[in-house]
Amino acid sequence: MKNIWSMLLLVITMISLLVTVGGCSKDDDGPSGPGVSSISANGTLAPTSRTQAQGTMFVTDQDGNAITGLTAANITARMRWGTAKVTVADSLTGAIILQTLSQSGKSIAAAMTMDYSGSMYWGPYDSTAQRYLTIKNMETAVKTFVTAMGTSDRAEIIKFGDLARINVIQPFTSDKALLTRAADTLSFDRGMTALYSSIVRGVMDASGQSSSSYARAVIAFTDGGENDSNVPRDSIFRASRRHAIPVYTVGLFDSSYHSTPPGAYSSERDLVEIADSTGGFYFYAPNAAQLVQIYQRISGQLSNAYAITINWPGTNLPPAGTVVSVTITISYSGFTSTFTRTYTMP
Q1: Of 90, 94, 276, 341, which cross-links 45 as Cys (Cβ 3.0–4.6 Å)?
Q2: What are phi and psi for residue 147, nearest 5 degrees?
Q3: 157 & 288 share domain
Q4: Residue 315 confidence (pLDDT) above 80
Q5: Hey, which residues does 158 pair with through a beta bridge?
Q6: What is the pLDDT of residues 263-276, one digit of tens each?
Q7: What range defines the domain where residue 221 resides?
Q8: C-alpha atoms less than 13 angstroms from C-alpha of 319 in its C-beta half-sphere
Q9: Of the candidates 242, 162, 168, the residue with the CA atom closest to the CA atom of residue 201
Q10: Is the pLDDT at 205 greater than 60, yes or no?
């Protein structure tokens, strides 16, 4: 009888341990809720003084959904410069101030570039909407983004094709009616694809919106590769770095131009590198019908972005004119992600 009670006690103990372990699953951990299996981070950074840099940071899960609830305790920042060597003098750790956009008092200012090159006019035609279906779905996606804007958010709509036909249809405004109307106007075949020039135009226009009041971004859409700009791709990187403005890119490519992971083919690789290098993210649209979901996801990432401030120690900083490299590391729920930005020390 004693052995039976001993066995029963052992079974009860094992069941209790299983329940306890089951209630501590990693997937249930963290401020953004269950289901996170990896994180990705990117963002912008620019100096405000010798001892401070500020920017906008985006952190997402494996599905591109924004990770919310992060604090300064989740972030580290390290500045490096000079030749690689083991010495404390060539690296510094900064103190982090992390705020949500609402905490920082910032709204969103996004310039959207829309591709109306000739290839956008291939495929089915919607006689009711009097639009080719790809055009219609792109315009619907842009209007979905506009609908999701907050009352203080602003947007600009640029429609482009060849270099001679890059038009700002609606300059920056918070008037959703004007933006919605602009999304539907001036739909015509604009020939070739001046992608780089249209993105630079978006970055420069977004730079006119106050960095102290807005988290600024460009959302660039295309269904093909660059073939008609009068500026090199590096001009995008220089403008983005100078004004700390990320570029989100959306590529509507068929299977012959898309790989998993993306980037094996030149047209798509271009968009991946533009987004990665400027602090944004690249999205692949397998078909035009997916564009609404993609623009909703971008909207979620922008609205849940973080304003990051890094305060550097006042001593042992490199001389003015030194190019420094800053690596920001985000740790969340057992996962880490890093991104690096460079700037010239004031």
Answers
A1: 341
A2: -60, -35
A3: yes
A4: yes
A5: 113, 168
A6: 888 899 999 999 99
A7: 104-303
A8: 2
A9: 168
A10: yes
